[in-house]
Amino acid sequence: xxxxxxxxxxxxxxxxxxxxxxxxxxxxxxxxxxxxxxxxxxxxxxxxxxxxxxxxxxxxxxxxxxxxxxxxxxxxxxxxxxxxxxxxxxxxxxxxxxxxxxxxxxxxxxxxxxxxxxxxxxxxxxxxxxxxxxxxxxxxxxxxxxxxxxxxxxxxxxxxxxxxxxxxxxxxxxxxxxxxxxxxxxxxxxxxxxxxxxxxxxxxxxxxxxxxxxxxxxxxxxxxxxxxxxxxxxxxxxxxxxxxxxxxxxxxxxxxxxxxxxxxxxxxxx
Length: 270
Fold this sequence. Notes:
Blueprint: E1 11-23, E2 26-32, E3 44-47, E4 59-62, E5 65-67, E6 72-77, H1 82-88, E7 95-102, E8 115-120, H2 125-136, E9 142-147, H3 156-162, E10 165-170, E11 177-178, H4 181-187, E12 197-201, H5 204-217, E13 221-224, E14 240-245, E15 249-254, H6 255-258, E16 261-263
Parallel strand pairs: 8-9, 8-12, 9-10, 10-11, 12-13
Antiparallel strand pairs: 1-2, 1-7, 2-6, 3-4, 3-7, 5-6, 13-16, 14-15
């Protein structure tokens, strides 16, 4: 059920938490991993959170960054419920139970020489590692980051260092331009001039707007979908989303195993 084209296969492993610091409303977790997990940008981990009862299921968390030479894994965790709250409050020295890397990530070759990255809120998390890999290939991206307010922005510092430019927007105007990030992009169409691909992660409304922009400009767009997941390996079918493919018409694919990254043109977002 897992994509065989990935650089590394999934493993169950323990990662030692060495740093836990605020990143706006989220928490930035830095972990030491002894295994060479070799993730692809856009892949995720299923993390055990302990606590029993309602938190016995693992929580899916995007891989924000990976330093294979030092075995350092970075995660951005937004505490929105009991499970993510337990992860966000984990103390240095804790061993985090991990399953992964999972899913199908971004295709670096599809980015082309002038990629554009778009992140909405905590959806910016997987874009950090993506930007790093693109920069290593000599194609640093132009990055757009949006959120409801300044504390909602994630990954700004890292993405600024890895991108050829960063455009910020908040709906309340507390950081960057005022409005949704896709509105800012529409107000400045020249920013997408020459873009070879859009790669994004964030709310469905944002992805739907990007799908329309990409279609109008005739450039490919790829989005990492955010869905509730139980198993993370495609067995439970709880994260299936409707797709529209020319060869088969409407069908459903699993975000965890067939994605989370899909061509936006194929995803039914309405």
